[in-house]
Amino acid sequence: MADNWRTLSALAAPAECAAVVKADAYGLGIQRVGPALWRAGARTFFVAHFREAVTLRALLPDAVIYVLNGLLPDLGAEYAALRLRPVLGSTPEISEWSALCRDSGAGHPAAIHVDTGMHRLGLSLEEAVQLSGTWRMLGFPPSLIMTHLACADMPGHVLTARQRLVFADVARRFPGIPASLANSAGTLLGRDFRFDLVRPGIFLYGGVAIAGVPPLRPVVRLEVKVIQVSTAPAGETVGYGAAQRLKRPSRLATVSIGYADGLFRAAGSSDAAKGVEAVVAGRRCHLVGRVSMDLATLDITDLPEHAVERGDTAVFLGDGISVDDVAARAGTIGYEVLTSLGRRYARRYVGDGYVGD
């Protein structure tokens, strides 16, 4: 992951490369991910929620931390005390932050979020234009003007080019304030999208950012134990709902993973479609039948007879299986695979001078 950040930082230069560590660092653990990215060279971080920012501040006392979901009502003093920078996307938020700064006599930095076409968060274009004439009187220094791309992961989408043009016009109305447009996909779209700061997320974590563009180095390896090896004759069904009927005499490996651990129920197999794969004894094997809460079953018939035993390992991420491979079989996206990794796993962090649980 640190290497991935360094790769993106070099690509984005001279723009600054921040790091998005929201949702517990995409499910991987902000307590380890935040410091690892800091050691790699990241100095600016984005989280979604105030509580995430509180956790990250305790880990990284000197980092610049932006809170993407903005300013929670009546919590401004807490943001300011921790030197957190809310991403302000509405006139009530801006008014509240301005009042706090005036009352305290301190100009606490914050970002301004402008909606350029996603219609989720941010000032309207009319509000942004109006603010551009008065922002010097806000009572605080805007430290960033930003927006978010809606379709950057879809090559050639007309909205992406339109958002860039609109944002460029908005940004020039705020001279001297750094501008940020690009997420992971936007960072890959070229210099015109990078402005002064890029905000990669999924690409840092080994996921695909744009269809057809290979990911960077894989970050997560997911291993589970085989807890039973069994056989079943042709014609029998496997798992809840009898969703898949065996077409041949089969050897089966039941593994200790289920939808409570983030292996989606939709990742299972049926008579109509094959589900996700795992690597067992060096070979990819498909799930057979539905995924249960705590268990799933693999078809190991094509492996040598005694190649798999109770206690052996099945690899669901790693050994060539990416988060996006799993996502494609489950009908979702790599982001959801990562952020759904359950709490029951033993987590081992390796590299960058640190090995530990």
Task: Explain the overall architecture.
The chain is of the alpha/beta class and 357 residues long. It has 2 domains: 2-205, Alpha-Beta Barrel (TIM Barrel), CATH 3.20.20; 222-346, Lyase, Ornithine Decarboxylase, Chain A, domain 1. It contains 11 helices and 19 strands. The protein has helices at 2-12, 22-26, 30-40, 50-59, 76-81, 91-104, 125-132, 158-172, 184-188, 323-330, 334-339, and strands at residues 16-17, 19-20, 44-47, 64-67, 84-88, 110-113, 142-146, 179-180, 197-198, 222-232, 237-238, 244-245, 250-255, 277-280, 283-286, 296-299, 313-317, 349-351, 354-356. The strands form 5 sheets. The protein has a 7-stranded parallel β-sheet with strand order 2-3-4-5-6-7-8. Strand 14 and strand 15 (283-286) form a beta hairpin. Helix 1 (2-12) packs across helix 3 (30-40) and helix 3 crosses helix 4 (50-59). It is elongated and about 75 Å long. The two termini are 17 Å apart. The mean pLDDT is 96.
Give the fraction of residues assigned to helices: 25-40%
Named at the architecture level, the CATH assignment of the largest domain is: Alpha-Beta Barrel
**CATH homology superfamily of the largest domain:** Alanine racemase
Mean pLDDT comes to: 96
Terminal Cα span? 17 Å
Give the strand tally: 19
Number of domains: 2
Global structural class: alpha/beta
Radius of gyration: 24 Å
Classify the beta-strand content into a percent band: 15-25%
CATH topology of the largest domain: TIM Barrel
Major sheet: size, sense and barrel closure?
Answer: 7 strands, parallel
CATH top level label of the largest domain:
Alpha Beta
Overall morphology: elongated
| Total helical elements | 11
| Low-pLDDT runs | none
Biggest sheet strand order reads 2-3-4-5-6-7-8
Order of helices and strands: HEEHHEHEHEHEHEHEHEEEEEEEEEHHEE
